[in-house]
Every structure is written in structure tokens, then in C-alpha cells.
Amino acid sequence: MASGVELRSLRADDLDWLADLHNDAFADHVVPASLDPGTLAAYLDETDVVPELSRVAFVNGTPASFCLAAMRGSRSSVRGEGTGRHFRRRGLGGLVLDETLQAAQAAGAAEVVLESVATNAPALAMYRRRGFREVRRLLGWRFTGAGDVGEVEELPAAEAVERLVAWGWDDPPWQLAPQTLRRLRGFALDERAVAVGKPRGDRFWLYALAVHPGQRRRGAGTALLRALPGRVGVPALVPETWEGGVAFMDAAGGEREGYSQWELSRPLPIDSACE
To answer: pLDDT tens across 176-196, in order?
Structure first.
């Protein structure tokens, strides 16, 4: 380890400086992120980040790099990784990632997944060197105009997720999995359609939408989409292989985001040949 570098696990009282470091690390990202400590805490809870498995690096006492690890059963996920702009090209990103993978393996993880913007060549190269491989491309959309809340009603997220699963919600990415969605907000168009997401400012980030099988192709999904509160955005988390969902978003007037992500996966234990 380089001189002046300290590595340790994340702690509950780290959120203030972690939010600042996160915002600095993503300031020049294709999707700049600005999170306050409260919003960051909610995200860590939603995605099951485990502080004890996550690693942070300091350079001469200054927070410099982080890697957030989540666990669900024997599956782990990197839910965020970044290095402050003044600390790049020192190998810190690889250092915190390697230590986080080791911690996940020791905790019993058999697989680690993550997402990376498709145009972020340096990050993708780092992940490939560590044995990650692209699984599928993830897409996002944005819709113009604010919603006109009419027939839509709020529904407990757990109930909305029950309907999603019953109506077909197959092999979702980590942030679209039922474990995540249950912590968001649910909406329903009577018994015909449900949606799950979260408002932020004047935007409503839509994470899931499903229509009862007997009501499909009758406009219920579009009606619910248009009734959601705020301008709707769909994060780039929808698998390109979900052909029906992709076709629906396009047909409903969504404009595809100008970037996509790769979902990547690698098995554990870690093979030293991949390092």
C-alpha cells in the first residue's frame, strides 16, 4: 500500500464526508450526482449496502476513494465506487474494489454484480481485469411534461411489488429487484396496473411498471405512466433484453437517455489470475 494511504471499512458516522466525496467523484460523470447525507443513507438502505463489507481509502487523512458493497443471500453487488478528482491515477479505485471483493467473498458471496456506464472505458477495463464480464445492456428514458394525477392512487410498496411479481418480473437488476422496490413508493391504477418509484424534486423516477395480464394492450400502462406525479424519468436500469418493456417505453413517447449501462458479473472465489 502506498505511503500515506489508510484503508478501512465504512462506518455509520461517515455519511457526511462520504456524500461530499461521492459528489466530487461523480461531478464529471455522464450523470452527475449530488446527494445529501440523508438521500445517501436512504440509497444505502434501499440497496442493502453493508458498511462492514464496504471499503474507503484515505490519503494523509483525507477521504479519497470508496467502494460500497451490498449483500443479499449469497449474492453481492457493488452499489457505488468512486475516487475524488484530486486523487485519481494512484490505483485507489482498484485498491478499494479489491478489498471489497475480498470482504464479500469472506462473507459468503458466490457472485458479485455491478453496473458501469457503457462509455466509461477506464472503469470497464478495470472491472474486466478483475474477472467481470458484461451480462446485458441497461437502458433509460425520460418523458416530457408533468403528470396529471387523476385515477392513480398510492399503494403500499409491498403490495405493489406482490402484483409485479405475480404479473411477471423476471430476473431484474439489483436496483429493480423486489428487495429494493419494497423500500420505494407504490402507485396503482385500480386493479389494472401498478408502478413503483420515488419522487425527487419535480421528477418521479420510475423503477417498475406492470399491467395485469388480462388488461394488456388496452392503454392501462400508458394511463398510469401519464398519471404519475412529476416529470417521469426511468433510470438506465432496464435490461435491453426485456423487449416488451423497451417497446412499451418507446411507444409511450419516452426519449431514450443518451447513455446506457452494462450490467457486469463475476463469480467468487476470486481467481488470482484475474488480478
So the answer is: 999 999 999 999 999 999 999
Cα 51 to Cα 18, 19, 54, 67, 180, distances in angstroms: 12, 14, 5, 10, 17
The H or E element spanning position 94 is helix 92-106
Q: Which residue ranges form the domains of the chain, and what is each CATH number?
A: 5-109 (3.40.630.30), 139-256 (3.40.630.30)
Task: Quickly count: other Cβ atoms within 10 Å of residue 123's Cβ.
Answer: 18
Residues 6+ apart with CB under 8 A from 90: 2, 59
Q: Collect the ranges in the chain with pLDDT lower than 50.
A: 272-275
Cα–Cα dist 102/266, whole Å: 13
d(CA 106, CA 58): 23
* pTM of the model as a whole: 0.93
pLDDT of 1: 67
Q: Give the bridge partners for 67, in sequence order.
A: 55, 81
Grid coordinates given for 228: 404519475
